[in-house]
């Protein structure tokens, strides 16, 4: 299993973050959304390979809950364990900070992400109808939680 570096992200990482976001998501966040996240004090953490950003997570803390708002891996290196690596680091830091659970929303049709989350211990705790924009209509969200 390859190892990667894990580090907090900041404003200077935004161009690399946005490039991955636009390559990986069908409805990418804008740079302004990431700026708002940094300004709001959300945790942005990155996985690095030889100094190059290859994936990231965005986490909001609410008391003893951690809300995973975004998890994204560069399409060029997907399916090599980077998503799982980011989740594991997130779990470790959440536990160290006294968190009780991690909560997220995911598109009901995002089979790759759902497979990753289920394998990491997330289970469905809710369902939001027509939550996301989608081609030709709206897509449901699954709300998932992992107890730490
Ligand atoms: C979802 C995402 C973060 C997964 O990252 P990744 O680095 O490719 O995932 P990993 O290699 O760590 O995969 C871990 C496990 O997740 C599951 N998985 C990941 N990608 C999968 C795919 N395309 N199809 C089926 N299962 C998949 C598998 O169980 C995999 O374990 P395995 O390879 O041993 O079978 C990545 O596909 C991504 O960035 N997608 C676009 C953005 C996105 O949808 N983010 C989630 C928003 S909620």
SSE order and pairing:
Layout: E1 5-8, H1 14-24, H2 31-39, E2 43-49, E3 52-62, E4 65-73, H3 82-96, E5 101-107, H4 111-119, E6 123-134, E7 137-147
Bound molecules: coenzyme A.
GO molecular function, one term: protein-N-terminal-alanine acetyltransferase activity
Family: Belongs to the acetyltransferase family. RimI subfamily.
Function: Acetylates the N-terminal alanine of ribosomal protein bS18.
Largest sheet: 7 strands, mixed
List the ligand species: coenzyme A
Radius of gyration: 15 Å
Average pLDDT works out at 96
CATH fold node name of one domain: Aminopeptidase
What would you call the structural class?
alpha+beta
InterPro entries: AcTrfase_RimI/Ard1, Acyl_CoA_acyltransferase, GNAT_dom, RimI, YpeA/RimI_acetyltransf
Keywords: Acyltransferase, Cytoplasm, Ribonucleoprotein, Ribosomal protein, Transferase
Function: Acetylates the N-terminal alanine of ribosomal protein bS18.
EC number: 2.3.1.266
